[in-house]
Amino acid sequence: MPVLLETEFVGEIIWAGATAAGGGLASEMTDQLELGFHGLTGVRHAGENRASCVRVSNLYPKGTEIRNVRQLSILSAEELELIAADMGLEAVNPADLGANLVLKGIPDFTFVPPSSRLQAPDGTVLTIDMENRPCIFPGKEIEKSHAGFGPKFKPAARNRRGVTAWVERPGALRIGDKLKLFIPDQRAWAP
Questions:
Q1: 11 within 8 A of 179, measured Cβ to Cβ
Q2: Is 189 part of any domain?
Q3: What are 39-60's pLDDT values in tens digits?
Q4: 25 is a domain residue
Q5: Range of the domain at 142
Q6: 102 near 77, Cβ under 8 Å?
């Protein structure tokens, strides 16, 4: 019996982007992402391993080599609309958030269970790690084009910032691809 259950939900890729390896947070829009086990070649979060950061500081000293489960940042189109509305903007540019993918069609996307899978038509599979908590850096990017709005990002993005993911099966992802959502076959944790 499979431990991953196919759901009725499908996320259509409506935006794709890549961040520069040595640059800032902003990503550049592209029509296609070529993914290997390391994620995207030449981007900020590439690699099978990474140096630990503040997000895992209760486990490791900063800079400790750990598995890279933050290869990709995936956002929801529906949640981006809510963020923009709460900020008083017409739209939020996914590039300002360092996004790699924006999907349309999966409700409550930021809270899709960890270890869920997104499968593309060609068999490419992404494994969701967890919620990508809002930080101040996207606000700094937003501030460049919308003066006075940058500080509004972090509170508006709470519970809507999307997820981080890593490549389980390499392949290509394109604008318009529809990713099937598979979730773990387990009950919610109830200690």
A1: yes
A2: no
A3: 998 888 889 999 998 889 999 9
A4: yes
A5: 4-184
A6: yes
